[in-house]
Amino acid sequence: MLIDSHCHLDDYENLPQILANAHTAGVDTLLAIGIGNGPADMHVALDLANKHPEIFATAGIHPQEAHQATPENLAKLEFLARQERCIAIGEIGLDYYHLSNPDIPTQQAAFIAQLKIAAAARKPITIHCRTSELAIPAAKAKYEPADAWADLLTLLAEHWTPHGLPGIMHCFSGNEAQAAASLAAGFYLSFAGNLTYPKSTTIQAVAASAPADRILVETDAPFLTPIPLRGQPNEPANTALTAKFLATLRNTTPEAIAQQTTANFHRLFPTTAA
User: Within 13 Å and on the Cβ side, how many CA atoms surround 67?
Assistant: First the structure.
């Protein structure tokens, strides 16, 4: 059995078929990310989880919507965080890539507010972190010399790790030093379809050497479709393709990766275990 530790299910018009495809591929549990198209929709993932036993949910305000982290929306998040099948807060974090994203102080304030909500609820977090390294010049001018990873790790050290709670570095795309810092802070590293891309050599090196008990697999569906289906819409069934690639990197079998990542997910989220 495989678990897709991060997928966006809100906008699938053919969700029953998507879930059937996942089951056929051996993906029997899905973590639906509750960011919607903004805070007004962050409950939709939980609605799906309450209807489908194979789905669990998160809730959170994505950094690109950080300007919407109003008292009203944060109160909504507090309510969702208390619900049984909302098992994590996220995806939350920092994104210094898109020019249209809120400024750094706004993003950081929203992130800290949500860390406090997650800590109060005793729920793990799932992190989004994107740097300005490959951004367009205008975005670089807006965000640099600040570094999203450095800022993220600093904020986590101050506002999260003292609580002794774990989390997930979603779609881990950092380097070995950032992986080590994340692991030291109690995070699991979740690998998505971009792991399979030829240019992802740094991520591949991290995935090959990361501790076995701290790795997860995901799709980030409908984004980041793995090879050999790159260019097509992604779906949770394709978790199996990333797991197969990860198995090759780690010189093991897809079955062993499925067993290990499933055990890791249930350790992180004990209430999801059968």
Answer: 5
pLDDT attached to residue 274: 66
The verdict on pTM exceeding 0.85 is yes
> Which pLDDT belongs to residue 217?
98
At CA 91, angle to CA 114 and CA 185, rounded to 5?
Answer: 75
Strand order of the β-sheet with 125-130 is: 2-7, 27-32, 55-59, 86-95, 125-130, 167-169, 187-191, 215-217
- The whole-number pLDDT of residue 195 equals 98
Judge residue 36's burial from the number of C-beta atoms within 10 Å of its C-beta, 0-12 exposed, 13-18 middle, 19 or more buried: buried
> CB-based contacts of 60: which residues, under 8 Å, 6+ apart?
33, 34, 35, 42, 77, 89, 90, 91, 92, 114, 125, 126
Q: How far apart are CA 98 and CA 131, in angstroms?
A: 9
Q: Own/partner pairs for 144-153, CB < 8 Å, 24+ apart? A: 144/96, 146/96, 146/104, 147/96, 148/93, 148/94, 148/95, 148/96, 149/174, 149/178, 151/94, 151/104, 151/108, 152/93, 152/94, 152/127, 153/178, 153/181, 153/182, 153/185
Question: Tell me, which fold does domain 2-272 have in CATH?
Answer: TIM Barrel (3.20.20)
